[in-house]
Amino acid sequence: MEKLNFEFKGDATNVANMERYLRNQFFFLGLKTPIRKEQSKPLIQRSKSLEMDTIRQWISELYARDYREYQYVAIELADKNIKKFQPDDIIFLKQLVAQKSWWDSVDSLRAVFGKYIKLHPAEKKTVFELFYKSTNMWERRTSINLQLMEKENTDIAMLTKSILLDQTTDEFFIQKAIGWSLRQYGKTNPEWVFAFLSGHQLSSLAVKEATKHLANGEHFRHKLS
């Protein structure tokens, strides 16, 4: 197995602002996205010729490092090699959702799972069940938003289950996710979203997020005022 040999070169001038942006929960090297991706480009390119056991090892090593940029590049490794992923690799990746969790890493991982189910639609339910009913709220956020890019392929029953499970959960990131999932699906099927909002009592935050771009959305927002 090829050994991981990779280090970022940080920029101290950006550290304070980047750490403040994520509420000082994580250490940063101060690399803004374009510079970070430029530095990691050779690593990503090299990974494309590697077997999955090596890629998984590199992802684990990078994700365990102290600086947030290494979590980002670990997720990027998964994203750029998603066509190699098999079900066991998804189970491996799932464990990262509950590690060093915040919206930035969780939503980036969710996007990787979203690409996987698009490549393997028959496995969507299996992936969904990895997160649905979890005691970890970040994993449940992932189940709610798993289908953000599915458009007309959205499994409505699955979406409904994930929302109703957390309908009354008093957690900002869960309610935000509910609204986001409805807003996104509303771009494909606004009639269904309108009917769903009419038939269910959702939080003001979820409704606000869901109706941002929905025709007649002011009807629901007015009811909250």
From TrEMBL:
CDD domains documented for this protein: AlkD_like_1
Transmembrane segments: none
Positions in coiled-coil regions: none
Domain of life: Bacteria
PANTHER family in UniProt: ARMADILLO-TYPE FOLD (PTHR34070), DNA ALKYLATION REPAIR PROTEIN (PTHR34070:SF1)
The name this protein goes by in its record: DNA alkylation repair enzyme
Organism listed in the record: Paucilactobacillus hokkaidonensis
